Amino acid sequence: MKKEYDPGEIEQRWYASWSEKGLFHAEADSRARGSYSMVIPPPNVTGVLHMGHAMNNTLQDILIRFNRMEGLNTLWVPGTDHAGIATQNVVEKDLAKRGITRHDMGRDAFVEEVWKWRRLHGDKIIDQLKRMGSSCDWERLRFTMDKGLSKAVRKVFVSLYEEGLIYRSDYIVNWCPRCHSALSDLEVEHEDEDGFLWHMRYPLADGSGEVVVATTRPETMLGDTAVAVHPGDERYASMIGKKCILPFVDRQIPIIEDAVVDVEFGTGAVKITPAHDLNDYEMGIRHGLERIVIMDTSGVMNENAGPYKGMDRFECRRVLEHDLDAGGFLVDKTQYTVPVGHCYRCKSAIEPYLSKQWFVRVKPMAEDAIMAVKEGKTRILPAQWEKTYFEWMNNIRDWCISRQIWWGHRIPAWFCDECGEITVAQADPKVCAHCGSANIHQDSDVLDTWFSSALWPFSTMGWPENTPELKTFYPTSVIITGFDILFFWVARMMMMGIKFMGDVPFRDVYLHALVRDEHGHKMSKSKGNVVDPMDVMDHYGADAFRFTLTAFAAMGRDVRISDKRIQGYRFFINKIWNAGKYVLNKIEGFDPDSVDCSSLRFSLADQWILYRLNHTIHDTREALKGYRYNEAAETLYQFTWHTLCDWYIELSKNMLEGEEKIPTMWTLYYTLKTSLELLHPIIPFVTEEIWQEIPGKKEASIMVAPYPEVTDAFAFADQAKAMAFIIEAIGKIRSIRGETGISPKARIDVVLRSNDHKRQSLFKANETYIRELAVTQNITFIPMDDPRPPRSALAVVSGMEIYVLLEGVLDIATEIARLDKQITKTTKELEKKKKKLANQNFLDKAKEEVVDEQRRLNDELESKLGKLKTAADLLKD
Predict the structure, then answer these.
(1) d(Cα 253, Cα 205) in Å, to the nearest integer?
(2) Please, are residues 365 and 393 in contact by the beta-carbon 8 Å criterion?
(3) Residue 100 to residues 85, 105, 185, 198: CA-CA distances in angstroms?
(4) From the DSSP assignment, how many helices (H) and strands (E) are in the chain?
(5) Predicted TM-score (pTM) of this structure
(6) How confident is the model over 634-666, as pLDDT tens digits?
(7) What are the tens digits of pLDDT across the range 328-379?
(8) Nearest 5°: phi and psi at 380?
(9) 3-state DSSP call for residue 290?
(10) Are 78 and 43 in contact (CB under 8 A)?
């Protein structure tokens, strides 16, 4: 092994080796040895690795590697999503640089241009996932637009249409004027913005007065076809049934009553624009109102807007406000917080827009998906997300699945120019299925990207064919994804899986939280706090990065990432590397296969480490099975760094001679090998590199080595308890050395005062450990009724008093003076810090991270002052 760990060289070499040996590949053979499967949440083909991907794929890879080592037939299906709107936007931007639009090219040429872009750039994120160590079955790489998945998409569409669950209708949709496409409710991001509430005067047609309406979107008044009031609102009782005149377009519209009107909003009288508001649309159906579309698909006012034709919607708002004021129709304008929906892709303000679209009637499928969770067929973790899932599914609305773009699965519906009927078919028809006319044309819309993604767990395994993969690996074991796409994706997969496979698509749903910066802020380019996973791996290596993400992946809690934390776990990787070098050096020439461990006479330290290892195996296995990633990481960190490296390796140094040599060499060998196997799912590269150097017969790769299991052979509970007492005593003596400033090399005398003869015997039998690790010289035992040794520091361990004699190893007077000076200085610093934190003005105005840093420094000073006072008191006693 090299002196220093070089992650770049090692990671590249081992990933290539695993791939060449086919260790990621799963055969769809049988369920005889049990199967474990997952499908990757397909990243957008336009994407690059971000922190969410890094987190998500690290957690998936841990489970895949763990279950692969458990001996299960393990499949992790990778793939990418064609990302209709996002990909089309990227390609259109590229074309714009060349002065070309998609309309210049025509549909077929443009789609071919997108395929060309995908072939050149679409696998970038796949390469980055490999860099992370993701052990997907790359031989099964899928794409939501590949031939097999396209067949599945068409099969599902046609089946749902024939069953009456897909229909085409006029409806208010979320329209993006920039992307020129409808969006589902889930694709709209709502933000509260500072806006206004306009009060406008509509004169009554009979000249008897006026009605004042309130709105946050005055430009839509041009499409008003009614004014509505609540039936119980006495203010307007005399107006119901009358007509009022719409300013500027001089259209007479009725005043109607409807119970959904909120009497507390504005004036209690609301304008009704059925073509540009969902609630108004539904009210319009109830009252048989005309639907007038007043703008085009780019948000520009059309001929129905009268004198405002050709104006952008927001320009129209400004001009209209001026005209209302000038004409005496504007009564009031007040500030008002308005919830505005934005396109999740381009961030443009969406427009509620009447359009003919395709919908899925999801209520019947949602009911089955709700029951599947209630009956425990699928678990959602953390459990609190179940309530959110039920609330959304119980109130689900029909899903708008058509998009007005060219890149995607084109809707398999053909319109007949003769009879006007629609033909929906799995194979492209030549003639109309209703009248036989050949004069037919296909719908120009494509399907929502999430439609094909909803089929992912079974379409990637070959459905609609009854493939061996489906028989072996469906339902999948778990889906791991961010909580933010519970409804975008998870709920839809549940509905489609149950509908077309007759079973849930996965047994568990694990929803991880967000990765934030060190201050808990969401990462964004505008804040400048985005951490690039590729930069992190270039600097610290994939293993350190993976361990950091795992260590902070507490269920339901956001992960705070920082350079300091990653650096800390890079030190941990170095610690493992150095421990591996030490052990391999000490067991050089040792043949573990020639040793029967049941015949070995283990020392107390050997028995202790083997017992602690057994517990670590148990706790790690339970944590991984329960998706408690952070607990698994913490258990392994504490055992590896502290139990193994800080204690056992140090204890072993004096046991590698004489009759203790072989048991200690075997224990070093076994503990290192087992620790690496336990750590492998989290940090695969460094563990493989060291594991390959360990002597003895073993598998071709640590990846396929059996995951360690608890063994009764190492149930050394009493011995471990005894060794823990010795270690505690050594730790106390070391603490005294540090607190009093005794040189690390100076040997000290220790007096132990106790009447517990059993503990005294234990101490005497293990003096070697104490002398070497606590750097002691003379160890004396005295009974409890003897006086305390003068000028000594005291520590208590399970009823035994340990005294470190300070005379002769310290210039006590000089040391007391030094400590008193430090106490005075630290006290003054602490007083300043406390005064600052008591200043309410500072607390109110300073940034949260600045206040947190001041509190941290305050805590450090308090701790430091306490230690200084303790050390001084020991010397003055």
Answers:
(1) 9
(2) no
(3) 18, 8, 32, 42
(4) 29, 29
(5) 0.83
(6) 999 999 999 999 999 999 988 887 667 999 999
(7) 999 999 999 988 999 877 888 999 988 888 999 999 999 999 999 999 999 9
(8) -115, 125
(9) coil
(10) no
